[in-house]
Amino acid sequence: MELQKTNDSRARVGDRFKPFVSQHSIWQNPLLKACERNELTLADYGYVISQHFYYSRGFTRLIAALMVNCDDDKFRAELSHNLWEEAGEEDSEERHSNLLRKMLNNVFGISNPDETQFKDHTVNYFNECLQFLKHSNSITCAAFLGWGTEGVVADIYNYLFSGLTRLGVAEEELLYLSLHMECDDEHAEVIEDIALSQCGQNLDGHSQEIKAAIDMALTLRDKYFTALYQDLTSAKLNGLIGNITNKKTYRDADDIQSYASELKADDGAKLYSNVDAETGINFNVSRFNIGCEVMDPRLLEIPQGCRNERHKHAHESMFYILSGTGRVYQGEQSITVKAGDLVYVPRWIEHYSENTGEETLSVLAITDFGLTKNFPQNTDYSYRSKVTSIA
Ligand SMILES: [Fe+2]
Ligand SMILES: [Fe+2]
Predict the structure, then answer these.
(1) CA 180 / ligand 1 centre spacing (Å)
(2) pLDDT digits (tens, 9 = 90+) for 26-41
(3) Contact 378/314 with Cβ under 8 angstroms?
(4) How many Å lie between the centroid of ligand 1 and the Cα of residue 147?
(5) 8-244 and 260-390: same fold?
(6) Distance 312 CA to ligand 2 centre (A)
(7) Nearest Cα to 363, choosing from 318, 331, 329?
């Protein structure tokens, strides 16, 4: 049986809360921003989505909580239609939670997501949603689940879907996400209509109550996503912290050859370079892969008459001038340098170097990029213009 769909005038009434949703701070969430800036790895997405599985697995309980609070049999019928879709319709193996199990297995190799070590904030997020819905009246309950939850799924899943496809994951592997990007707006409207109908002719009188419920839903999710983002960052630091605190060297004595270099350009892996005849920018940066953990030594080479571009980054650097003469600019100041000089470049200061002599200016730049790279938004690429190659 085809249930009656939301009528258009109702949907437009519901739209009046959309600006409130779109202005919420959740859209500045660091996890979403990291997706947008392509800063997450496939493993990062695997972590985030395997934690989200806890919510997905329990989701029908949230609809059920709303059903309990809804005394209109027509709306309960429409909610049961949502539940029917969630349940995979005729085939319970195709229920949405199972689609996510398949996606976790196929994309991330997580074969048994039910055995994930769910974080406290993952469990708490779901429980706080469930508790709110169990103990609210039907207006706030529907506002929380309609505008505040189902209504934002398409946008939030789009961050994950776009990020994963940019990493090369095939769209057909992401059915769980694309399906919800298509169907959840309709689900949201059914739920929003419950709130609107309960308000009757007094929508203005209930407006603050509805906004408070929407804000609660979005704020809980915002906090949860921030906690997941912090997990990603701290997971990357845990190995480093362990190496520092366990008081044992991890170095293999046989590896000493690989920890040495003659400081020739060819010894370093190419990191980036840029040439722009108009501005005189011409430089090359190579990395010495000699096994440092936090220190990341690089060789900066600038030909005669050229400079590198003004830029800034999270890592601090110690410049040791190997050969040539030039000027190192930091902020509004600059100093002359020659072979044998040492210059410290603090984090985040805008700086560049210029070759003022007659031979190549060669600089050994010892940075702490091995530390700062663990904070993805702080990688230097975003603050460097016109980079022509990044290895
Ligand atoms: Fe679903
Ligand atoms: Fe720099």
Answers:
(1) 6
(2) 999 999 999 998 889 9
(3) yes
(4) 16
(5) no
(6) 6
(7) 318
Which ligand has the minimum distance to the alpha carbon of residue 271?
2
pLDDT at 375: 75
Ligand at minimal distance from the CA of 309 is: 2
For ligand 2, the distance from its centroid to the CA atom of residue 348, given in whole angstroms, is 9
**Burial status of residue 134 (CB atoms within 10 A of its CB: 0-12, 13-18, 19 or more):** middle
* pLDDT value for 9: 52
Joined tokens for residue 297: 């030594």
HSE at residue 101, side-chain half, CA atoms within 13 A, is: 12
How confident is the model at residue 98, as a pLDDT?
A: 96
The ligand placed nearest to the CA atom of residue 317 is 2
What the block records as the tokens of 241 is: 């912290």
- pLDDT of 369 above 70: yes
Which numeric CATH code is attached to 8-244?
Answer: 1.20.910.10
pLDDT at 322: 95
Residue 231 alpha carbon to ligand 1 centre in Å: 25
Whole-number Å distance, alpha carbon 189 to ligand 1 midpoint, is: 15
Task: Report DSSP letters for 271-338, one per residue.
Answer: EEEEEETTTTEEEEEEEE-S--SS-EEEEEEE-TT-BPPPB--SS-EEEEEEESEEEEEETTEEEEEE
> Which ligand has the nearest atom to the CA of 94?
1
Position 5 scores a pLDDT of 46
Burial (Cβ within 10 Å: 0-12, 13-18, ≥19) of residue 374: buried
The answer, yes or no, to whether residue 383 has pLDDT greater than 60, is no
Torsion of CA 172, 177, 183, 184, to 10 degrees: 180
Mean pLDDT over 171-191 rounds to 89
Distance CA 18, CA 202 (A): 19
Q: Where are the domains of the chain?
A: 8-244, 260-390
Q: What is the pLDDT of residue 389?
A: 36
Contact 99, 175 (CB under 8 A): yes
Q: How far away, in angstroms, is 123 Cα from ligand 1 center?
A: 18
Say yes or no to pLDDT of 299 above 80: yes
Q: State the average pLDDT for the chain.
A: 88
pLDDT tens per residue across span 354-368? 999 999 999 999 999
The ligand whose atoms approach the alpha carbon of 62 most closely is 1
Assigned CATH for 260-390: 2.60.120.10
> E strand or H helix at 72, and its extent?
none
What pLDDT was estimated at residue 373? Answer: 83
